[in-house]
Amino acid sequence: MTTLGSLEQQVMAAVWGQPPATVREVCGRLQGVADRAYTTILTTLDRLHRKGLVERAKVNGAWVYSAAAEGRARTEADALAAALLAHGPTGLLALVEQSPDEATLDQLAALIAARRGATGGTP
Question: Are residues 79 and 109 in the same domain?
Answer without folding.
Answer: yes
